[in-house]
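> forwarded from #structure-qc
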């Protein structure tokens, strides 16, 4: 059993490389893992709008918060983001203000879990920088103290200089069953007295409540944050040793263009299971900052202010005599509660979740049922974001669908045609430039235009203000896959 050392204020360390040179941001690369769906955050998180792209804290998404934490650690041209092809345009839009090159968005043809994703980025880094150190971190974490986060990463990078695989461990606050755990052995010796790292004994899967309580008492266990720091070359050596099939496939990738040819032959596996449970050179740096992986609604509750009865209310609501409830809403309606205890309520225009707080991890099972039942509620919201703007389904009935379409300034949809539906557009505000067949027509507020079945057409906003259109679709099939694109600015 390990005892905690008494906290002593010391000057911030000047971390050094193995050669005695200061460790600067030029030494570091970052890989942000942004391809997950976040199904435990349903109904807010959907396949087409997963939680990493949602504004949960403040005016920025979790992905944008993650990028902000890297400022001063990693230069923008060395930040990579790996995601699903489905999210390319959303990622591109969200990272635009950070000046991260579009070429640094790595697209997986399909998700293969964390080991192939990190290995792919390490392989690409090694092509230009054999000494590069890679920080791999998820896009959807909450970290409060950014200064302490940066100090932790710098310490981890200094350890990585000694050819160690470094993981960031979180001291457990409670016997949580939703996290993996890491058991430590003893303090490592390090040339810099300010760096405190532990030798890792083993990685453990998410435990039962009984086991989690035992871990808490021991003081030898940390939560697995999923944040890793290591030399790209050292990581690839471990992939070669423990995942030789993956290594042989990654060796065939010399540029991003090679990914689609190789990716189908790669087997999915997590970095924890494939590498960290086997490697003999792992070090753990304790995190001295507040952290959450936001893996469930209950995890979010712990981070938000509560009233005198322990309630978290982020909705238009009226309550009487409830305790320990959480109410979140993206819908425009009142939530009224009476005499409830320890419940989570998450409301959206098309789906409502009500569950016991201690069963919040089971939301994923509801999403699995929606998938089996081929329900649309796990795929998209009523308002669907697109690279050119968004549309909201206002009403759906037999043979018709009504949408509100909003197109951002100077953006346009693809040149397209529909085989099984016609469309009637009424401009609510702004001015629309419409390609219809061989004609170009400008349609202004309170004017309308009709697009017959099978006719090539394109909708464009030629102005510097938003364009809003009410679209009425008619036909015997009104799904989004009834579309043939002839030209598209967004490469869909």
């Amino acid at each position: 059993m390990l005892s905690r050392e008494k906290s002593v204020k010391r000057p911030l360390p000047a971390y050094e490389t193995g050669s005695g040179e200061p460790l600067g941001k030029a030494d570091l690369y970052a890989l942000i893992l942004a391809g997950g769906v976040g199904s435990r955050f349903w109904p807010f998180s959907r396949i087409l709008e997963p939680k990493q792209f949602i504004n949960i804290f403040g005016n920025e998404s979790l992905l944008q918060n993650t990028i902000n934490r890297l400022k001063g650690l990693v230069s923008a041209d060395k930040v990579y983001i790996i995601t699903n092809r489905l999210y390319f345009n959303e990622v591109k839009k969200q990272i635009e203000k950070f000046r991260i090159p579009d070429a640094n968005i790595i697209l997986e043809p399909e998700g293969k879990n964390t080991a192939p994703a990190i290995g792919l980025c390490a392989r690409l880094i090694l092509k230009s920088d054999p000494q590069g150190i890679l920080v791999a971190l998820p896009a959807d974490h909450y970290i409060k103290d950014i200064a302490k986060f940066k100090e932790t990463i710098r310490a981890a990078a200094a350890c990585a200089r000694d050819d160690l695989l470094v993981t960031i461990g979180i001291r457990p606050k409670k016997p949580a069953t939703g996290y993996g755990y890491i058991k430590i052995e003893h303090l490592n010796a390090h040339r810099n007295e300010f760096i405190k790292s532990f030798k890792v004994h083993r990685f453990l899967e998410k435990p039962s409540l009984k086991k989690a309580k035992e871990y808490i008492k021991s003081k030898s266990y940390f939560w697995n944050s999923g944040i890793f720091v290591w030399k790209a070359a050292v990581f690839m050596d471990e992939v070669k040793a423990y995942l030789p099939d993956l290594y042989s496939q990654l060796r065939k990738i010399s540029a991003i263009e090679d990914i689609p040819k190789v990716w189908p032959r790669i087997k999915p596996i997590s970095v924890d299971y494939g590498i960290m449970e086997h490697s003999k050179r792992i070090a753990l740096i304790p995190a001295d900052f507040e952290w959450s992986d936001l893996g469930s609604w209950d995890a979010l509750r712990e981070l938000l202010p509560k009233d005198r009865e322990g309630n978290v209310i982020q909705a238009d609501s009226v309550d009487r005599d409830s305790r320990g409830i959480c109410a979140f809403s993206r819908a425009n309606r009142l939530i009224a509660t009476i005499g409830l205890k320890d419940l989570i309520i998450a409301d959206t225009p098309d789906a409502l979740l009500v569950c016991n707080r201690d069963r919040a991890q089971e939301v994923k099972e509801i999403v699995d049922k929606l998938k089996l039942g081929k329900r649309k509620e796990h795929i998209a919201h009523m308002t669907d974001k697109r690279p050119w703007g968004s549309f909201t389904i206002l009403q759906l009935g037999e043979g018709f669908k009504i949408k509100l379409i909003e197109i951002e300034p100077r953006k346009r949809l693809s040149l397209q045609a529909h085989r099984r539906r016609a469309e009637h557009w009424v401009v609510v505000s702004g001015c629309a430039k419409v390609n219809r067949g061989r004609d170009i027509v400008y349609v202004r507020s309170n004017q309308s235009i009709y697009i017959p079945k099978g006719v090539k057409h394109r909708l464009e906003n030629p102005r510097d203000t938003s364009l809003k259109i009410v679209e009425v679709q008619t036909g015997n099939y009104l799904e989004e896959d009834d579309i043939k694109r002839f030209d598209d600015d967004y490469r869909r």
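QC bot note: The longest strand covers residues 221-231. Residues 146-160 form the longest helix (15 residues).
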